[in-house]
Amino acid sequence: MNTAPIGIPNTGIGLFHCIHETIKEPSFSIVDLPQPFDIINMEQKKMKLNRILLLLAPDPMDASTQDMMGTISASIVESDANLHLFNNGSKEQIEHHLNQLFLEKMN
Questions:
Q1: DSSP state letter for 68
Q2: Which Pfam family is one of this chain's hits (predicted)?
Q3: Which CATH code is given to the segment(s) 13-106?
Q4: Which pLDDT tens digit goes with each residue over 25-73?
Q5: Inter-CA distances, 30 with 57, 68, 98, Å
Q6: Going by C-beta distance under 8 Å and a sequence separation of 6 or more, which residues neighbour residue 54?
Q7: pTM for this predicted structure
Q8: Domains of the chain by residue range
Q9: Which parts of 1-107 fold into alpha helices (H)?
């Protein structure tokens, strides 16, 4: 199995993606770790992981699920403000942000 660094530089965030046939419904979860631990980030540097952002989807994935997951993933790194939100924001603040994002996409 190939792995890639999942730590986002200059944050405490790790972004995990998993697509598998046993996953029945797409899911986005935020896990705040009780204690940080060291991982390698996307720049191949050591960082402290404090929060996991977990994107799960079924395989195969339909086009609307691909679009939804891509929107979430892109939003995380879209701006410094979004990085700050996903790194430090409450789950409610992040949920509000994503709701607004999807409402904009629907219009």
A1: H
A2: PTS_EIIA_2
A3: 3.40.930.10
A4: 999 999 999 999 999 999 999 999 999 999 999 999 999 999 999 999 9
A5: 15, 16, 13
A6: 16, 18, 27, 28, 29, 30, 31
A7: 0.87
A8: 13-106
A9: 63-77, 80-88, 91-106
